[in-house]
Structure formats: structure tokens, C-alpha cells
Amino acid sequence: MEKKQPVGLVLGLLIGLIAGVVVSGLWTNRKVRAGWNLVPVVVASQDIEEGTVITFEYLSQRSIPEQFVTSNVVLPETATYIINQKLRVSVVAGDPLHWSYFETSPSKPAPAGRQPAASDSAR
Asked: What's the rounded mean pLDDT across residues 33-58?
């Protein structure tokens, strides 16, 4: 009596194993990508020296992962608040701009959600 090879069973297990690996890889990839959604922020379009008064030609927009965007990062919808403001620090082209990089002018209120610096309240 000849023994039959369980080819169908082996082939089915192999296909199931491959499908499991593919699904697991897709799930892991989705978890790894969480927090890496891109968000537009305002960046320096060129190197800018400390003390420079900001105009639109110094600004550009770039998208960065949302996990790196804090409340201190200037977003495009609030970029007008930094126009005509003086930089406290030098920045390199491509660097995201932060609210703390600017001297605050009493004539320009901070955008909603931003608190004036402690030094601003003393004015």
C-alpha cells in the first residue's frame, strides 16, 4: 500500500502562513506610521539673523510629522502674527519657526490659544 503525500494540506498551511505574515506586516506598518501624518508649518525660507524684522519673503511652508508639531510651532494660518516682528535668535533655512523665537509687540495681540510671554505682561 502506497502512502499518499498530503500535498493539499502542506500547500494550504503554506498559503495560510504567507497570508498571516502579510496581514501582520500591514498591521505593524499602520501602527508604525501612526503619528507620522504630515502637518504644514511655517519655516524660514533662508538663513535669518537675530534681530531681523520678519517679512513674507523670509517665510515658507513645509510639512513635518505631526508628532513634532507643538503649540510653540507657528502654523500657516497664524503666520501673519509674526510679520514685522523681530527675531530673538538666528534661524537656518528650512527650520520651523517657533513663537518663542520672536519679540512680542504690544500692538499685535497673540493669536487665539497662545499666551503672551511673562515679559510682555510687564509692559
From this structure: 93
